[in-house]
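I have been asked to look over a protein record a colleague put together. The record follows directly below this note.
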Amino acid sequence: MIIRWLWPKILIAVVTCLLIGYLGSFATIVALEEWYPTLVKPSFNPPNSIFGPVWTILYILMGLAVALIWHSGWEKEKVKNAILVFIFQLVLNGFWSMIFFGMHSIGGALFIIVVLWILILLCIIRFYPINKFASFLMIPYLLWVSFATILNASIYYLNS
């Protein structure tokens, strides 16, 4: 019975995370064809085709994680606080694409991604006492954003 009530939360959370990624992709698509190829990139820059599948998996994991936290009891203050941190990081995640790809602001995006990394770490820390598995689901996201931060910083350095 309890699991049955989890599924709507999973659906809402996963769809919301995927929607943020989808909205961010509008800024990305044009820039990948016109602006991004003109940048000097480091040797470890992955092919563009990697980003879509990786982000899709990460958004699903994020949605599952926040659904588990939500399911722990919205009436609890620590759950509300954890979800609030999650929402802030999710919004910043969407803004990163708009700033980097849409506005072509590599430095601005670097600032955003550093703050995003801190918020993801804070999310993991806040999720852990509520649901350890939910916090573990966020670790691949933190690792990918760590890599993306290094990539963003390298692109900034190489193109400044």
About this structure: The mean pLDDT is 95. The chain has one domain: 2-158. Helices lie at 2-34, 48-71, 77-102, 106-127, 132-137, 139-158. The longest helix spans residues 2-34.
